[in-house]
UniProtKB/TrEMBL annotation:
Residues 1-31 are annotated as: Disordered. It comes from Racocetra fulgida. It comes from the Eukaryota. Residues 22-31 have a biased composition (Low complexity). Residues 1-21 have a biased composition (Polar residues). This is 4736_t:CDS:1.
């Protein structure tokens, strides 16, 4: 396989300048070689591994959230009981 540069079509980009749309062109060039293709396909994890990782991270975060919510409920209940105990005994509930 011979190494040849892959040139994409010229892409127009519209940017607002001074209230007007101007048209500028940029040509994107990259080397499409076996080495670059192999590097591109092996750099990141596989989609299955990435999805599994994201699900596990989400589950761990949800466990932490549930634990924090339970701690907040316990603290709120303790604060309510402390407040109730601080009221005078002859105050109607």
């Amino acid at each position: 396989m011979t190494e040849q540069p892959l040139t994409t079509n010229t892409l127009p980009s519209r940017l607002q300048r001074n209230g007007k749309n101007s048209l500028s062109s940029k040509s994107l060039t990259s080397q499409l070689t076996e080495e670059n293709l192999k590097l591109h396909t092996t750099v990141g994890p596989s989609p299955r591994e990435a999805k599994t990782h994201l699900v596990l991270v989400y589950v761990d975060l949800q466990k932490q959230l549930v634990a924090l919510e339970e701690q907040m409920r316990i603290e709120a209940k303790a604060a309510q009981e402390k407040f109730t105990m601080s009221l005078p005994k002859d105050t109607p509930s």
